[in-house]
Amino acid sequence: MLRTGAIWLAALLLAGAAEGATLRIGLNEDPDALDPARGGSFVGRVVFAAVCDKLIDTDAKNNFVPQLATTWAWSADNLILTVSLRDGVKFHDDQVMDAEAVKANLERYRSAPESLRKGELKPVSSVEVVDPHTVRLHLSQPYAPLVAVLADRAGMMISPKALGRDVTSDLPCAGPFKLTERVAQDRIVVDRFDGYWNADAIKLDRIVYQPQPDTTVRLVNLQAGQLDMVERLGPTDVATVKKNPKLKLISQAALAYYSVSINLAAPDSPLKDPRVRAALEASIDRSVLNQVVFDGQFIPSNQFEAPGSRYWDPDHPVPSRDLAKAKALLREAGQEHPRFTLLIGNSPVEQQVGQVVQSLAAEAGFDIKLQAAEANALVAAGRSGNYQATIVIWSGRPDPDGNVAIWLACDGFLNWGKYCNPKFDDLLSGARGVTDVAQRQALYKQLVDVYLTDRPHIILYHAKWLWALSDKVSGFTPTPDGLIRPQGITLAP
Questions:
Q1: What is the DSSP letter of 455?
Q2: Are both 152 and 181 inside the same structural domain?
Q3: Residue 373 in contact with residue 344, Cβ under 8 Å?
Q4: Torsion, CA 28, CA 33, CA 35, CA 36, rounded to 10
Q5: Are 465 and 256 in contact (CB under 8 A)?
Q6: Domain tally, the chain
Q7: Rounded to whole angstroms, how far apart are CA atoms 202 and 90?
Q8: Cα 218 from chain centre
Q9: pLDDT digits (tens, 9 = 90+) for 33-60
Q10: Is 71 helix (H, G, I), strand (E, B) or coil?
Q11: Among 98, 131, 161, which residue terminates a domain?
């Protein structure tokens, strides 16, 4: 009896220790502004996953699932989306989340000067409060991607009391953790919010995010017990993790892709000539890039949708390298040795990608200068148009509109390269106006024809999300969007 009681007491103490745990996560870079209206970085979304619940979420199979909203439904003409809200939700400042709060947030995203969400919500003509738990979004035209938009930053709700000021210091959202500290380039600390509507799903007391761009440093810190989890493990480190009995590897095919964004407005850039852009693509061997940098872990790709996925176009498979074609195109353009600067992230993996592209393109005659920049500096250069070409990552969205419109629509919020083709926008508008999958697939195939001809972006590969975790971490559910949702995660003492 005494032995049984001792075991029970020990188990209880261990459970208590786990409940008060601090999870330390190594990030690939430091996020940009921690404000859903202003943010544009992937790691920003990783932090938002703990701080800012959305109206709608996605699950491990890319299905849309309830979060702050419980249900949503389209009108017969697809011009009204009615959203029912969860009862009993509070913001971190103890304000109640109701329909008025949702309206205030959506109006900010639609019209505030600082908002990068305007393009995503452009078809929304008004937001109507029906009752405290119901809002109706009225559209000027059918817009099928709206549900996906509300499952991203534009669906994150902030306390209305905080709107109108800089929210990046405290970010009073309605998520399971509240922002308590941020030291740029060093750490972001979030603490459990006791008033969270789904409190039973949260087993951690604190999460500390630590930006560490060097994948080797992140892994060493994980091995030494200074971190509990790292996102975007270097693919060449997979074998090391698998051999370590105190670590575990979790992988997931990703919606994310890496692409070369080309600034068509950059003065004196040889890449403004479409023949030079075609030559650059012909000089790149995506399979070699995958093997050399990613140890064969990633997926060579040339479209914004992953090969084999619902909106991928099999009529445009990934092209093989063609040096003869690349050289011929450069001769035709009268630029046999074009020079340009390729802006890349400062992480070792992204620098390797740049070096391989530089080496492959050199064999066709290109003279590429590499310029490494910290993640936020790269984003700032992109937004200001201060680049000729840059390698970018997009974490991917479940709706195809969210993977292509951001970069290539004339008003795309990440259209850094100033690409604007009326034919592309007309096709995009048509695809947004229908919800039938077969009809949308046909329209997206035409979109692929346009952007693969114009090449404002050259997609290089789709990723696999690779997380390395201490064996003390349990309950993490990987998803194709690559986010780290804290619900269900536990940390053993």
A1: -
A2: no
A3: yes
A4: -60
A5: yes
A6: 3
A7: 16
A8: 20
A9: 999 999 989 999 999 999 999 999 999 9
A10: strand
A11: 161
Q: Is the pLDDT of residue 18 over 60?
A: no
In this structure, are residues 137 and 127 in contact, taking their beta carbons and an 8 Å threshold? yes
What's the CA gap between 251 and 466, in Å, rounded? 5
Degrees, nearest 5: CA angle 256-260-262: 135
Instruction: Band the pLDDT of 340: cuts 50, 70, 90.
Output: very high
CB-side exposure of 356: number of CA atoms within 13 Å? 19
Distance CA 287, CA 320 (A): 9
Same domain, 266 and 243: no
Contact partners, residue 268, CB within 8 Å, separation at least 6: none
Per DSSP, the three-state class of 47 is: helix
Q: What is the per-residue burial (b if ≥16 Cβ within 10 Å, else e) of 297-307?
A: bbbbbbbbbbb
CATH number at 409 reads 3.10.105.10
Q: Which residues of 117-128 are buried (b: 16+ CB within 10 A; e: fewer)?
A: bbbbbebbeebe
The answer for residues whose C-beta is within 8 angstroms of residue 349's C-beta and 6 or more apart is: 215, 232, 234, 235, 293
CA angle 272, 275, 280 (to 5 degrees): 85
Identify the pLDDT of residue 441: 94
- Residues 28 and 213 sit within 8 Å (Cβ to Cβ): yes
Are 436 and 324 part of one and the same domain?
A: yes
Backbone torsions φ then ψ of 487, nearest 5 degrees: -60, 125
Q: Tell me the residue ranges of DSSP E strands in 103-246.
A: 124-131, 134-139, 177-183, 187-192, 204-211, 229-230
E strand or H helix that includes residue 345? strand 339-345
φ/ψ of 160, rounded to 5, equals -60, -25
Q: Token pair for residue 101?
A: 């709060």
In a domain, 9, yes or no: no
Q: The pTM is what? A: 0.79
Identify any residues that bridge with 257 across adjacent strands, giving them in sequence order: 394, 462
Q: Tell me: do 329 and 433 sit in the same domain.
A: yes
* Res. 398 pLDDT band, cuts 50 70 90: confident
Q: Give residue 1's pLDDT.
A: 37
- How far apart CA 463 and CA 28 sit, in angstroms, is 14
Tell me how crowded residue 30 is: count the other CB atoms within 10 A of its CB. Answer: 23
- Report how far apart, in Å, the C-alpha atoms of 300 and of each of 307, 312, 460 are: 8, 13, 6
Same domain assignment for residues 316 and 406: yes
What are residue 129's DSSP bridge partners? 135
In a domain, 39, yes or no: no
E strand or H helix that includes residue 65:
strand 64-66
pLDDT, residue 423, reads 97
- Parallel/antiparallel/unpaired status of strands 56-58 and 64-66: antiparallel
Tokens (6 digits) for 490: 């536990």
What average pLDDT does the segment 227-243 reach? Answer: 94
Largest CA distance in the chain: 90
Q: Which residue has the tokens 């972001």?
A: 188
Q: Is the Cβ–Cβ distance between 37 and 28 less than 8 Å? A: no
